[in-house]
Amino acid sequence: MLGNTITANPANVEHILKTNFQNYPKGKPFSVILGDLLGKGIFNVDGDLWLFQRKIASLELGSISIRSYAFEIVTGEIKHRLLPLLSSVAGKDGDPLDLQEVFRRFSFDNICKFSFGLDPCCLELSLPISQFADSFDLATKLSAKRAMAASPFIWKMKRLLNLGTEKKLKEAITMVNVLAKEVIMQKKKLGFSTHQDLLSRFMASIKDEAFLRDIVISFILAGRDTMASALTSLFWVLATHPKVVLKIRDELDRVMGLTQEFASFNQIREMHYLHAAVYESLRLYPPVQFDSKFALEDDILPDGTFVRKGTRVTYHPYAMGRMETLWGADCLEFKPERWLKNGDFSPESPFKYPVFQAGIRVCLGKEMALVEMKTVAVSVLHRFDVEAVTRSVVPRFDPGLTATMRGGLPVVVRERKKVEPSKQGHC
Questions:
Q1: What are the tens digits of pLDDT across the range 373-416?
Q2: How do residues 201-240 score in pLDDT, each as one tens digit?
Q3: 149 in a domain, yes or no?
Q4: What is the pTM assigned to this prediction?
Q5: Could you give the dihedral angle defined by the CA atoms of residues 102, 105, 108 and 110, in that order, rounded to the nearest 10 degrees?
Q6: What's the domain range around 239?
Q7: Which residues are annotated as a binding site?
Q8: Which of 93, 198, 314, 384 is deepest in the core (most CB within 10 A)?
Q9: Is residue 420 part of a domain?
Q10: How confident is the model over 99-119, as a mean pLDDT?
C-alpha cells in the first residue's frame, strides 16, 4: 500500500516543485483517475507530453500582445453581458442571483473565446442551458470522487460493470467528447492557419483529434473552473468586508477619476490595494485547495521527512494560507494590508503561497487570471453594490477538482449610489 505524506512547510514545497522537481511528477495513479476526462492533456501528463504542451502554450500566453487581447475579450464580456445581466436584476425583489453560476458562465464564455476563437453565449440575458457546461460540471465532480474512494478497485469495478457514478461519468464524458469535437470541427471550418488563439496554435502542430480533444478539455478546466471559483470567493469576502470595498473604490476613483466608466489595462496594473485584496482572497480561498505528486525514488525533504518511493506527497495551499506560523496571529482575517509596503504591493515567496503552483510547473495563465479578476472587480464595484444573502455563514465547499461553494453565492444587486465629488473620502 502506498504511503501518503502531507506537508505545509514552504521549504518542502520548494523542494517538491523546484529543487527536486524530476522526482515528483503528477504520477500514474492520478493520471488513471482523471484519464477518462482529461486524457493526455497538460494537467494529466508528465515528461515529454507535458513539456510539448507547455512550450506551445507559453508561446501564446507569454506575450504582452496576447495579454492585451485577453483583456479586450474580458472587457467585452463585461460590457455586453455581465453588466447588463446585473443591471437587469438590480433593485428587483425577486429571487437572489447566484453569482457563482454567473461567474461560471462568464468564465466559460471567456475561455472559449480566448482559447478557441468561439463564443458559446452562456451569459446571454436568457441564461441558456449549455449541455456542454452541465456535462463538464458533472464529469469533473465524478472524476474527483474517484480520488476519494477507499480503494481504486471500487471505482474500477463500477466502471467495468457500468454502474452508479461510473455510468453517469461515462454518459457525461460522452457529451463532453461530442461537443469538444464540435469545437474542433468548427475551428477547422473557420480555418486556423492565420489565427493566434490557443487551439489554432495546437492544431498547426497536431493532427490527432483525440489529443486535440484532450487539449480542449484541459484548457476549459484551467480557464473556467478556477476563474469562477476565484471570482466567487473574492465577491463573498468583499460582500462581508464593506470597509475593504470602500478602500477599493477610493483607489478606483483616484486612478480612474470620477467620470471614466471602464479601467484601461495600464490603470488596472496601478491598483495596488485591489491587487492585494485579490491575493488575500486567494490566500484564504484558493481555487485548487491541495495538490499531490508521487515520488519516483526515495527522498528526504528539507525538514528531515523520509519519503519512500511511490509515496503520494501532498502540499495544501488552503491549509498553508491559514497557518499562524506562516502568516501570523491574524492569519484567519481577510486583511489586504498584509500585502502592502508603503502602499505598494509586495509579494511573498510562491512556495509559501503556492496558489498558482510554483517552480517549473507554475501556472502559465497567472497574470491573465489576475487581470481578469481585477477587471471584473473594478467594473462591478464601480457600478453596483453586491450584498450576500448569507453574510454571516462561513462558506463550505463541495468536493471537486476545484473549490465550488456549496449552495452557490446568492446575492442581491443594487445600482450604486454615486458619492458627490465634494464628499469623496468622508464615507
A1: 999 999 999 999 999 987 666 788 887 889 999 999 999 999 98
A2: 788 888 888 999 999 898 888 888 899 999 999 999 999 9
A3: yes
A4: 0.91
A5: -70
A6: 4-385
A7: 363
A8: 198
A9: no
A10: 90
Residue 403 lies in a domain: no
- Side chain identity, residue 238: L
Q: Are 319 and 352 within 8 A, CB to CB?
A: no
Residue whose C-alpha is closest to residue 168's, from 36, 28, 30: 36
| Model confidence band, residue 423 (pLDDT cutoffs 50, 70, 90) | very low
CATH number of the structural domain spanning residue 268: 1.10.630.10
Tens-place pLDDT, residues 251-279:
999 999 877 889 999 999 999 999 999 99
Work out how many domains the chain is built from and give that number. Answer: 1
Q: How far apart are CA 336 and CA 244, in angstroms?
A: 8
Q: How far apart are CA 252 and CA 246, in angstroms?
A: 10
Give exposure, 128-137, as e/b (b: 16+ Cβ within 10 Å).
eebebbebbb
Position 333 pLDDT exceeds 70:
yes
Q: For helices 209-220 and 164-190, what crossing angle results, to 10°?
A: 110
CA angle 32, 289, 305 (to 5 degrees): 80
Residue 120: name the closest of 53, 220, 23 by CA: 220
Q: What is the DSSP letter of 324?
A: H
Per the annotation, binding residues for heme are 363
Would 284 be classed as within a structural domain? yes
- For cell 509559501, name the residue: 352
Grid coordinates 500500500 are at which residue? 1
